[in-house]
Every structure is written in structure tokens, then in C-alpha cells.
Backbone:
């Protein structure tokens, strides 16, 4: 608290102490500038004898982690307010002021300060985490350079790449490196919901617009404020929703389900897909005009097998994080273990590598992770079979990997269903109790042929 009037300093110090704040009060510019260390908020009179509150404001703004500044003046004028805001003040208040007005201003200023600190901490955690997507390979260095360029812009970005390459991580990096970092980042999987629910989640709905709509709800595009909405697996979006999304992106307005009025939104849109949208457009499954609207800037993530030089770097990074979490700082890979990882093709990309490192660190009895801690497939051995004991209960062999086993089972059932359905995918989906969209999504996840129309056939 900075004021050259002792009575005002004592009054405000008492008022804010009652609200639980730790308050230091000083009478002028020089002691104020010497007392800024560790301060979250400065409340400063604009007129300070021969000095000015703007001098304190400038000193505060020059600090590495500047506190918020609220200026108080009995000589309030539009020019003074404009100057204060231009210099970076949070706000100003004129004497005489209402106590509640000041309390609310203090609360809001400190909330902004806290949000900035939390965001700074998140960025500090996230940017080292970009090792998941950024490596020493030239291709990933090019990706990171493009992230830095597009982050400050408002342009729509399309992030492409196989499953597990780190598309959401890169989308978060774009968000965090731009001016929207203090606003929400809302990822949304377009393949996870049916058409009606998808539109309600994205665009919002009015009360009574459908069964179960018991109250009005804003969609993600509006709820994100000036943040970022990531449309993951946008290639799975139904055709009718594609039409609506195209209009939404063109007009920057959404029409909630059941509403006749449009609502503007300010969020940035980042789309992601593991499909080749150009091929989807040619096949008639994705609108060409929507593709060009989303494809303002394309950021393609290479699969891990095409940047093998990053595998050891990434594995070591994941292990260092796990070592900290597990309280085992001496965890390390044996050279032959890293050599095996570098020779493996990683069909599940970075996500598979991360899971593999976690498995090795969790199951190892020693701090040195040898080849035996890796799955049999990485060591060049066959995956151990799941046998049954006399009671019919599965007996799991050493090195059994549940995730791989479930993936293999799902792939096998997809192929069996296609075979029994004569290659007709709608029928195959019915045999598995899946919607056609879910069936197609699973085909794509396993890299199975999916270039035919719903009623077409395919070899299994």
C-alpha cells in the first residue's frame, strides 16, 4: 500500500488485514520501489508528493514476475486512466471509494495474479514435456519451429499424424505459447459421440430442445472463451455436422441446438486427425470446403519409426520423470536395452514408448533396466501365450502385456467380423454390436483397410 497520507495507509491496512491479507504500507515512490520483492499486488495513490504512482507502476512492471497494480486517485480523469492502463495497471479507482468496491477490485486483481502464476507453472511443466514431441531429429525440430511461428497467430491449425505421435501435446504447446495461454484449452474427441450429442457438446443447446435437455448449456466453442478448442479425430465427424462446423468457422457464430439465434464465439480452433483428409475428400467422406477451412496451416507429426534417433532421448526423458515420481533417482537403462528400443518399429509411436518405459521401471527389481524389462516383441521373442490352469483360469506368462493382448484381440475380432459379413462393414459393425462410426474408427486405429463405402466390401 503506497500513499503519502498516514491516515489513508492506516485505514487501508486495517481494512485489508481484516480480509486476511498480509499488508506492507510505505509513504512514497522510493520505499515502494525498494519493497516490491515478493509482492502480489500494489495499491498506490497516483499523486505522491513530488512523485507519481506511475513511477511505482513502471518499477513494478519491470520486475521478472510483476505484481498487479491498482492506482487510486482523487484527481481521476480519462487521460490519467488511459495512461495508467497503457502502462500496464490492472485497474484504477477514484476517491472517495466504496469499501466493497475496493475489496472486489483487490480480489479480482489477485485472482488474475494467481492465474498467471498457475499458468507459468503449467508452462514450465509443459515445455519440458515437449520432449515427448520434440527431439533432436531434423523433422521434429522443424515441427517445433512451426509451433513457435503459429502460436501467436489466430489461424486455424490442422495437426496430422498417426495415433500416438503426440498431436494433443503439440496442440497444447501451440495454445500455451500464444496469447491465449491463460484461457481454457478444451480437447474434444469427435469420434466418441453420436451426431446429436456431438453438436450439443460443440454448439450448445437450449432447455427442452431434446429429451434430457433439462437446462440451457453453452457449447465448448463458447465455453472456451478466448481459449482453444481442439477437435481431435475431426476426420470422424458425421457429414451433417461437417456442414454446420463449416458455417460456424466461417461466421464465427454458433447456433445452439433448439435455438433460432446465433451466439458469437472467440475461441481458436485446432483440428487433429490420424487420417489423410485429402484421401477422405476424394472418397467423399469429408467435405472439401471444410478441409480447406481447417487446413490453413498444417503441422504433420512424423511417426517414431521415421525418427529413430529420438528414441533414446525420449526413453531417457520418460525414465527421468518416472524416477522422480517413484523416488528412485538412480533408474537408468542398460546400453543394450536402449539399442533394442532403437531397433524396434513402435507401431504405437511415442505413446507406446512411454508405456513401455513405465512398464520397465515399474516391474524392475533393480535400478539398471536391462533387456529383460522390455516386452518380448521388442527383444525379438514371441509374445507369451495365455494358457489356462486346470480350473480354466488364465495363467499369465512372464512378460505378458495386457494392452498388446487386448489390441491383438480387438484386431482379430474386427477381421473375423469382416470375414463373416462378407466384407460388408455395416453388417460387420452389427455383428460386433458397434455403431458404424465406431467400427470405422477401430479399423483406422489398427491400420486396417478402410477405403470403401459403408456398404462396400473389403478383404480381411
Residues:
Amino acid at each position: 500500500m503506497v500513499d503519502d497520507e498516514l491516515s489513508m495507509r492506516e485505514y487501508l491496512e486495517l481494512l485489508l488485514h481484516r480480509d486476511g491479507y498480509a499488508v506492507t504500507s510505505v509513504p512514497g515512490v522510493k520505499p515502494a520501489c525498494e519493497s516490491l520483492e515478493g509482492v502480489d499486488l500494489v495499491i498506490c495513490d497516483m499523486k505522491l508528493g513530488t512523485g507519481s504512482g506511475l513511477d511505482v507502476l513502471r518499477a513494478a512492471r519491470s520486475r521478472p514476475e510483476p505484481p498487479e497494480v491498482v492506482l487510486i486517485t482523487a484527481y481521476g480523469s480519462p487521460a490519467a486512466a488511459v495512461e495508467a492502463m497503457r502502462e500496464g495497471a490492472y485497474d484504477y479507482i477514484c476517491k472517495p471509494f466504496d469499501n466493497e468496491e475496493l475489496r472486489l477490485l483487490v480480489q479480482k486483481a489477485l485472482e488474475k495474479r494467481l492465474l498467471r502464476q498457475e499458468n507459468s507453472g503449467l508452462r514450465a511443466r509443459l515445455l519440458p514435456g515437449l520432449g515427448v514431441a520434440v527431439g533432436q531429429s531434423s523433422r521434429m525440430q522443424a515441427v517445433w519451429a512451426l509451433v513457435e511461428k503459429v502460436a501467436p497467430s489466430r489461424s486455424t491449425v490442422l495437426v496430422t499424424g498417426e495415433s500416438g505421435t503426440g498431436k494433443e501435446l503439440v496442440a497444447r504447446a501451440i495454445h500455451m505459447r500464444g496469447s491465449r495461454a491463460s484461457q481454457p484449452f478444451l480437447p474434444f474427441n469427435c469420434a466418441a459421440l453420436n451426431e446429436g450429442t456431438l453438436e450439443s457438446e460443440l454448439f450448445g443447446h437450449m432447455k427442452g430442445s431434446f429429451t434430457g435437455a433439462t437446462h440451457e448449456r453453452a457449447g465448448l466453442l463458447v465455453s472456451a472463451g478466448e481459449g482453444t478448442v481442439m477437435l481431435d479425430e475431426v476426420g470422424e465427424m458425421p457429414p451433417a455436422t461437417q456442414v454446420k462446423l463449416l458455417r460456424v468457422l466461417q461466421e464465427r457464430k454458433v447456433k445452439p441446438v433448439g435455438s433460432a439465434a446465433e451466439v458469437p464465439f472467440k475461441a481458436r480452433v485446432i483440428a487433429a486427425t490420424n487420417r489423410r483428409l485429402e484421401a477422405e475428400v476424394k472418397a467423399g467422406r469429408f467435405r472439401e470446403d471444410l478441409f480447406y477451412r481447417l487446413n490453413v496451416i498444417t503441422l504433420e507429426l512424423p511417426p517414431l519409426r521415421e525418427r529413430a534417433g529420438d528414441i533414446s532421448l525420449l526413453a531417457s526423458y520418460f525414465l527421468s520423470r518416472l524416477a522422480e515420481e517413484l523416488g528412485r533417482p538412480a533408474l537408468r537403462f542398460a546400453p543394450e536395452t536402449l539399442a533394442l528400443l532403437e531397433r524396434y518399429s513402435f507401431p504405437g509411436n511415442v505413446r507406446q514408448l512411454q508405456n513401455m518405459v513405465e512398464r520397465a521401471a515399474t516391474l524392475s527389481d533393480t535400478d539398471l533396466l536391462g533387456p529383460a524389462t522390455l516386452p518380448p516383441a521388442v527383444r525379438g521373442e514371441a509374445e507369451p501365450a495365455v494358457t489356462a490352469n486346470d480350473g480354466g483360469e488364465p495363467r499369465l506368462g512372464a512378460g505378458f502385456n495386457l494392452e498388446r493382448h487386448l489390441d491383438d484381440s480387438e484386431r482379430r475380432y474386427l477381421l473375423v467380423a469382416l470375414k463373416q459379413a462378407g466384407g460388408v462393414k455395416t453388417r460387420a459393425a452389427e455383428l460386433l454390436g458397434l455403431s458404424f462410426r465406431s467400427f470405422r474408427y477401430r479399423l483406422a486405429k489398427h491400420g486396417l483397410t478402410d477405403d470403401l463405402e459403408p456398404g462396400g466390401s473389403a478383404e480381411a
